[in-house]
Amino acid sequence: MMLADPQVRHREMIVTIDDPTRGKQRTLGMPITLSDTPGGIRKPPATFGEHTDEVLAEIGKFRETGVV
User: Fold this and answer.
1) Which of 12, 19, 59, 68 has the greatest number of CB atoms lying within 10 Å of its CB?
2) What is the DSSP string of the chain?
């Protein structure tokens, strides 16, 4: 199992985040880390459809024309 892999554990690739709607969640951390800019997980993954309206607004007026 990937979560038990010694290399995954050593590199701290699985992190626990606090999701406001789902509680504590384990998720994949940063797969690549750089010494000067290591990065990190700042927020939980989006829920299904969370950004639909934003995306559609950027690519056109599909909702107004009934396409979506």
Assistant:
1) 19
2) -GGG-HHHHHTT-EEEEEETTTEEEEEE--SS--SS------SPPPPTTTTHHHHHHHH--HHHHT--
Q: With the CA atoms of 32, 35, 39 and 40 taken in that order, what torsion angle do they form, in degrees rounded to the nearest 10?
A: 80
Q: What is the mean pLDDT of the chain?
A: 83
Contact call for residues 13 and 29 (beta carbons, < 8 A): yes
Number of structural domains found in the chain:
1
Alpha-carbon radius of gyration of the chain:
18
Q: CA 29, CA 9: separation in Å to the nearest integer?
A: 11
Average pLDDT over residues 34-46: 83
Q: Among residues 41, 9, 38, which one has the least CA distance to residue 25?
A: 41
What range defines the domain where residue 40 resides?
Answer: 2-65
